């Protein structure tokens, strides 16, 4: 055995398995909204599934929300790998999320599960200098193993969301069409602007995604559509996700909607979103 082999083995021992650099350069997209229940987790899981199944991308989902809904949506309690938690990695030095990334039942789709102690992690991080960089640093090696990394953010603009925006290249903003939902969008876009001016100048908005749209309510939709176009114009994605009863059913069953019912409205809308996002990110599909 050469000295080089020994050195590589030593490094692996110190860093844990599967942590050698890969050959990819992931685009990192944070799925964020200040408001709760607008479809962040549904979008993270369903878009990730569309990108891996239809666009053949290698995708990592990172759950930055202590509620742990990403893992629940994939019905996997055993998504932790390596015995460590996401919180411990974010608080640690020179740690990488790839250490705990675990495969899902879907080919090409991996995930880093959250844990209930993430809220405490957030409190512990708050006293630290450079806390907003924790996720960016912990994704350095992971970025080389995937084509796309999607981050599911909690429904607030706290340290975990800010860290996600600092780690991201782009942000995807789901919004439902209620006025309250739109107020949240303005607050988020202001935060994005501040982060662009300070910690992450290359952050941009991938788009606003209209979710849970009731297609039967034409008059209401038209009024809101017009004000949305006047307010956000080019930021609006073409894809609109309609209300689909298959989505909550799929979540209850612990499966992405595409696997629950491929013919459902939800599956079709998220397939369209996958195609639009692939185009916007310039992915080779
Ligand atoms: N297009 C849709 N049609 C019908 N129901 C939906 C749709 N999108 C999401 N839902 C349902 O709405 C609820 C909230 O969705 P989801 O968990 O994705 O939102 P969230 O923004 O992640 O919420 P939180 O802020 O709590 O994390 C879930 O019960 C989900 O099943
Ligand atoms: Mg959620």
What does this 3D model show about the protein?
This protein has 285 residues and is α/β, with parallel strands linked by helices. Helices cover 43% and strands 15% of the residues. Strands 3-4-2-5-1-6-7-8 form an eight-stranded mixed sheet, with helices on both faces. Helix 8 (179-197) links the parallel strand 6 and strand 7 (204-213). The longest helix is centred in the middle third of the chain and has 19 residues, at 179-197. The protein starts with a helix and ends with a helix.
CATH-assigned homologous superfamily: P-loop containing nucleotide triphosphate hydrolases
Average pLDDT for all residues: 89
Q: Into how many domains do the coordinates divide?
A: 1
N-to-C SSE string, H for helix and E for strand: HEHEHHEEHHEHEHEHEHHH
Order of strands across the biggest sheet? Answer: 3-4-2-5-1-6-7-8
Rg from Cα: 19 Å
Low-confidence stretches: none
Query: What is the overall shape?
Result: globular
* First-to-last CA distance: 41 Å
Strand content: 15-25%
Ligand inventory reads: adenosine-5'-triphosphate, magnesium ion
CATH class, anyone?
Answer: Alpha Beta
List the helices and strands and how they pair.
Blueprint: H1 3-15, E1 27-31, H2 40-53, E2 59-63, H3 69-73, H4 86-91, E3 102-103, E4 109-112, H5 118-125, H6 134-138, E5 148-152, H7 159-167, E6 170-175, H8 179-197, E7 204-213, H9 218-232, E8 236-242, H10 246-252, H11 257-260, H12 265-281
Parallel strand pairs: 1-5, 1-6, 2-4, 2-5, 6-7, 7-8
Antiparallel strand pairs: 3-4
Helix pairs in contact: 2-12
Bound molecules: adenosine-5'-triphosphate (ATP) and magnesium ion.
Adenosine-5'-triphosphate (ATP) is lined by residues 36-42, 65, 67, 69, 155, 211-212, 241, 243-244, 247-248, 251, 266.
């Amino acid at each position: 055995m050469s000295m080089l082999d020994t050195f590589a083995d030593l490094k692996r021992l110190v860093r844990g398995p599967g942590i050698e650099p890969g050959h990819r350069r992931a685009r990192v997209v944070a799925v964020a909204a200040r408001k709760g229940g607008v479809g962040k987790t549904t979008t993270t899981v369903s878009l990730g599934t569309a990108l891996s199944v239809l666009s053949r991308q290698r995708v990592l989902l990172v759950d930055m929300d202590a509620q742990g809904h990403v893992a629940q949506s994939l019905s996997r309690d055993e998504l932790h790998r390596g015995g460590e938690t996401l919180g411990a990695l974010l608080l640690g030095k020179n740690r990488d999320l790839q250490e705990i990334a675990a495969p899902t039942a879907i080919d090409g789709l991996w995930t880093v599960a959250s844990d209930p102690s993430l809220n405490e992690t957030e409190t512990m991080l708050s006293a630290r200098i450079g806390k907003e960089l924790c996720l960016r640093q912990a994704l350095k090696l992971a970025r080389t193993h995937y084509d796309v990394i999607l981050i599911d953010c909690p429904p607030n603009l706290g340290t975990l969301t800010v860290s996600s925006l600092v780690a991201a290249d782009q942000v995807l903003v789901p919004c439902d069409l209620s006025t309250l939902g739109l107020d949240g969008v303005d607050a988020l876009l202001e935060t994005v602007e501040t982060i662009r001016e300070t910690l992450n100048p290359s952050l941009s908005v991938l788009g606003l995604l209209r979710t849970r749209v009731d297609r039967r309510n034409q008059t209401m939709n038209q009024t809101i559509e017009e004000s949305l176009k006047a307010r956000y114009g080019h930021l609006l994605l073409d894809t609109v996700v309609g209300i689909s009863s298959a989505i909550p059913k799929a979540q209850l069953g612990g499966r992405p909607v595409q696997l629950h019912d491929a013919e459902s409205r939800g599956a079709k809308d998220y397939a369209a979103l996958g195609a639009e996002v692939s185009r916007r990110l310039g992915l080779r599909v």
